[in-house]
Amino acid sequence: MNPLKTKSTIKYKLLSFQELVINLDRLSRFKLPDETFSRVFHNIIYTKLIYPKYSKLDIDTIDPKIIKNIVEEIWNNSVEKLFPSQNINKAPNIALKNTIYKTFKNINERTKIYIKAKLNFSSILENIDYETSPINLKFLIKVNKEFSTKRKINIDDLKFLRNKYSLLFPINKLIIVEGITEEILLPAFANKMKSNFNKNGIFILGAGGKSKSPSLYIKIKNQIKIPIVFLFDYDAKEICSYLTNNIEKKDKTILIEKGEFEDILSINLLKRALNDEYKPATPILKEELHLYNKMCENIENFYKTRHLGEFKKAKLSKIIAKNIKYDTDLTDEIKKIIYNII
Question: Which of 26, 203, 219, 236 lies most in the core, judged by the most C-beta atoms within 10 Å?
Fold first, then answer.
């Protein structure tokens, strides 16, 4: 007889509060549930189960119902030890399940069993700091506070909560971009246009380069229900054309016709942002932002001639984002991209 079927023969270590928070964070992130749930559940068995002891390969072959039951016991006993006698609110569990099935499709049978696990989320959520939590946990914290097990929770309820508190979840649309510049600046420009991405459930994902976009799409297209939008620099025109001819009807591509994202930024915004950030360095002139065809080369020249160190796109994007103030900071190209996304 498999000893995992007999609770009396099981010995395990409890999860710490930090481990519980980390695992709840992983379960509620915007990632393919087949990957996240197996990772979390199997890791708990591997690291916390003392007897019987299984290798990582063994765990993959164990009946998922047994895995679920053991994880439930380890998880809930850990929470009970930390927070005895707290009332359990199942609303966060229901909300997480609803958002998963609203967003993803073709979930495998093992994962479906794991999703049904009766884990005590509410006691954890009541004891973590809202302000310092990632946005996926902020979403669950608000669900825990504003809904109860007694009330039926549907997607419209969760969307209302998302819009009220700018919580991103449940996610309505996935935007795949090439790099960090777009990840930081698209939401900032959208806010200026009063089109808050978090309120609209728009999630931005960096592909890590244009060449990775087709393989990423192949990986996720049959597992995601929501629309997917790709944003490409002009030098990815061939990849963009390929995807445009091979994507599903719900998905689309956007090509930046004038080069890279930096090339469609407002010159006045760039000038103001750089000069405000790098006082008392010699101010940059508009002419210096027209020296080279590519804006990144102009910016790199500014850093070099002022001895400001290495030009990093992430840092520059944050500088630009905090300097977006006027309607004129939105070029027509940026407005067009935001409209296409929304």
Answer: 236
